[in-house]
Amino acid sequence: MDTAPVLLVIGIHRDELAFGRTVAESLDPRKVQVLTIPEGLSGKRPLIDQQFKYNTLHQALYRQLLPSIQGRHTLLLDLHTGSDPAGPSADLICADAAWRDRLAFEIAARPALAAQNLRIVPLGTVSEFPHAHTVIPKQIWNNPEFIYLGMEIYLPETASGQTAGRDLAQSLVTLVADLAAKPFPTSTQQRLAVSRQMHPQTSHEQTAGDGVPTFLPGRRQG
Ligand SMILES: [Zn+2]
């Protein structure tokens, strides 16, 4: 594959594009190719009678990404933002259990990242979380040809907090790109160790609210 292993998509929600650009600007193009959605969707929570239209628009936009990913990249990284006055914090949302374990292991091994408020969230119907609801089509988040990883960075409103959020996002994108470029380790012991380590955190502390990764801007529950 002569393109970068990771395709980073910014601007699915237009209000989040400016932050996405700041994250994208210093990335290594050999590792991460950036796809900018110039006119993304509104990320505002739809009124009840607008829900169908909102879902339809999202599904159409995500499906348009398929030709950009398939056969070109091993991982689709979908960047979003939300708000967290105590942030920055982040959710990494992925349907692939091996990838979730791998991320947990690598984050735990990096003190600067392990100290951050990060959450690795399963996506899909088979999980301990009620994550069946998503506006993203299944052919995006569960495709045999590539991994889907949603990254939601929750930002405080302060300038320093925004900068810290950008730095966090860049660190995470770089980590993901490095992992995507490497062969996949599948040590059962490693995965079991990570599993024990991460599940206490993910199973209760941060699953208040609806617990569903809807990719809508909002206050982080916790
Ligand atoms: Zn978003």
UniProtKB/TrEMBL annotation:
Residues 193-206 have a biased composition (Polar residues). Residues 193-222 are annotated as: Disordered. This is N-formylglutamate amidohydrolase.
